[in-house]
Design goal:
The chain is mainly β. It contains no helices and ten strands.
């Protein structure tokens, strides 16, 4: 099992922040990236936002995969009045497999706030597990180390 949180000091290519910190068994955090030859299967997430604002507040929070493009895994769009707390859990996410070399990201810009707003706190915890890729790894070799050049 892999439990990941966002590093709000590491912006993603399109928007949001990198989900690249692993929660260890002792509660500490360590850097995480998907190892070569493996994929991350996402099974769920928990999220929380606390925003201070007044008037109409439009917010969209997203979990996305960002590489050459952007693929949204989860999105929550809200229109609120003033400050708000919002939290939730999503389980049973199926068929979401993240390959090495792309960014897993959380967050999106606040959309057209009518007055000044400030995030006080945003948290996300992504749950999943690693699986070994079958066939060719990122090195180009198959599971037996063959590179395919001799027809094997």
């Amino acid at each position: 099992m892999v439990n990941l949180v966002a590093d709000f000091n590491t912006p993603c290519p399109a928007y949001g922040y990198a989900v690249n910190q692993q929660i260890n068994a002792d509660g500490t955090l360590s850097p995480f990236s998907i190892p070569d030859g493996y994929s991350l299967v996402i099974t769920g997430l928990n999220w929380y936002q606390y925003v201070i604002g007044s008037g109409e507040t439009r917010y969209e929070g997203r979990l996305s995969i960002q590489g050459t493009g952007v693929a949204t895994i989860f999105s929550d769009f809200r229109v609120e009045n003033g400050s708000y707390n919002r939290a939730g859990s999503v389980t049973g996410i199926s068929d979401v497999v993240v390959q090495p070399g792309v960014a897993l990201c959380y967050g999106a810009p606040i959309l057209k706030p009518s007055t000044y707003e400030m995030y006080k706190e945003i948290r996300v915890n992504v749950h999943g597990y690693l699986v070994k890729n079958r066939g060719r790894s990122d090195s180009g070799n198959d599971d037996n180390g063959n590179d395919g050049s001799d027809g094997h």
